[in-house]
Predict the 3D structure of the following.
Amino acid sequence: MIQLISRSLRQAVFNGEDFKACEDVSLGSLSAGFSLANAGVGAVHALVYPLGGQLHIPLSIANAILLPYVMEFNKLSNLEKFAEIAKLMGENIDGLSLREVADKSVEAMSTLSKDIDIPSILQEVGVKRSDIPLLINEESKFERLLNNNPRKLNNEDIETIYYNAYSK
């Protein structure tokens, strides 16, 4: 699913007549949905729900904004898995260390969002710095999702992710 979506999303967004690209994105999305239904979701979803519920930011946009920041936090939990994401996204990894390849997965995700004109920071969708304490308090309602995350987060970690995602 990662490979299908990452190789075809740009084309599907900017050329909706490319039915093969649209099919790839649809199949990737369907597969991702099956995976999420079986494995559950983690910190990204826990952190975006308050953005949608309190600030009315579409969850798809909030997910795309926060995903690279949560990936950055989570990658230390399993460098091999994050390196595999970079490979599936078609990143050039020749001669890189495992850590550098894992870093490429975060970069690739950020680039993909940027390429399809998704904002890269929360400030771009109207989040105010003063909203972040409210978001931190709200996300605690989604403890089940946080417990499903590959790397355990505390309130300081969550605060850091929100502030990192707020502005560059």
Notes: The CA atoms of residues 16 and 22 lie 7 Å apart. The chain has two domains: 1-39, 41-166. Residues 1-39 form one domain.
